[in-house]
Amino acid sequence: MSYLILCSSFLAALWILRCAAGWPNGGKLYTAIAQTAGKREVQADIGRTIVKDGEAMFLLADGIGRGEKGRYAAQIAVDSVSRMFEAAGTGEYPKYFFSDAFRAANAGILRHIPDASAGASLLCAVMKQGYLYYALAGDCRLYLMRGGRLWQISEGQTIGSLARQAYRQGKLPREYALRVANDNRTCNFVGKDGFSQLEICEVPVSLKRGDRILLASDGVTQALTEQELAAAMRKRWSCNFCAHWLIAIVDGKKEPEQDNATVIVAKAVIDQEVWYAKE
C-alpha cells in the first residue's frame, strides 16, 4: 500500500471533535469520526458524539436499505436516541435508557418508512462516572484499547455471532454452529417488524487512565483484521490521526464491493484519579 494512497484517503475524513463542556473534573474528551462511502453511491453511515453533564454518548448507525432509504433510517435512529439523551441523560439506570431509546428509534423508522424497506444497525456507547456502557442492535462493533491490547466488547447480532453464542450456552450443536460461524448477515436491527432483544452489557466496563474506545461499522470490520485494528489503536496517535488512518487503510485495499465504513475513536482525559477505576 503506497504512502500516497494513505495520504489521499485522509481527505475523506468528515469531522473531528474535542469536547470539554460539561465534562467532569476539568477534563477533556477527545473524539474523532472518519468515514468513507467505499464503492457505494450513498453514504448510509451516521456517527455522532454528544456530551451532557459529565456523560459522553457515541452513536453509530449503519443504514440498511436501497438508495437514500438506508441513510434516512440511520438518521432517524441517531436523532431519536440523541433527543432522549439530550433531554435527561441516561439516568440512574442506563440499561433502561437503552431499552426505551432503541424502541423509540425502531418505532420512528417504522413510522416514517411504513413499508419496512429500510432500517439500521445501531450502536450506542456511553462513558459515565468512570464506566463504559453500551447497547447494540445489528452488526457494529465496540472495542477497548488497554495496555497495548485491543478487546472486542460487543459480540454483534449476525447469524454467525448468535450461533457461536448459542453453542457456548449449550443451545446449538457444534456442527451447526461451525457451519454458520462466518455468516455475517445481520439478523436484528432497528426499523424491523419484530425488532428483538438488544445486546446490552449486563456489567459496565470500568475505565482506566489511558483507555481508548473504537466504534466501527461492518464496512470496517469486514475490510480489516483485528490485528490491523489493534496495530493502529496501539500507536500513540491522536484520536483524529488514528481514525483517519484506519479509514485510509480501508480505502487503500481497493475492495471492489467495499461497503460504507465509519469509525469513532475516543479517549477521556480526566484530571482527578477518582473518575477512574482503581488499578
Structure commentary:
- This protein starts with a helix and ends in a 10-residue tail after the last strand.
- The chain is globular, with a radius of gyration of 18 Å.
- Helix 1 (3-9) crosses helix 8 (239-252).
- Helix content is 32%, strand content 28%.
- The chain contains eight helices and twelve strands.
- The protein has one domain (28-269): 4-Layer Sandwich (Phosphatase 2c, domain 1), CATH 3.60.40.10.
- The longest helix has 21 residues, at 68-88.
- The strands form two sheets. A six-stranded antiparallel β-sheet has the order 1-2-12-11-7-8.
- The protein is an alpha+beta fold and 279 residues long.
- The chain has helices at 3-9, 68-88, 94-112, 159-168, 174-179, 218-221, 226-234, 239-252, and strands spanning 15-19, 28-36, 45-52, 55-64, 119-128, 131-137, 141-146, 149-152, 199-200, 205-206, 212-216, 261-269.
- The model is unreliable at 1-18 (pLDDT under 50).
- Residues 30-268 form the PPM-type phosphatase domain.
- InterPro entries: PPM-type-like_dom_sf, PPM-type_phosphatase-like_dom.
- It holds the Pfam family PP2C_2.
- This is Serine/threonine-protein phosphatase.
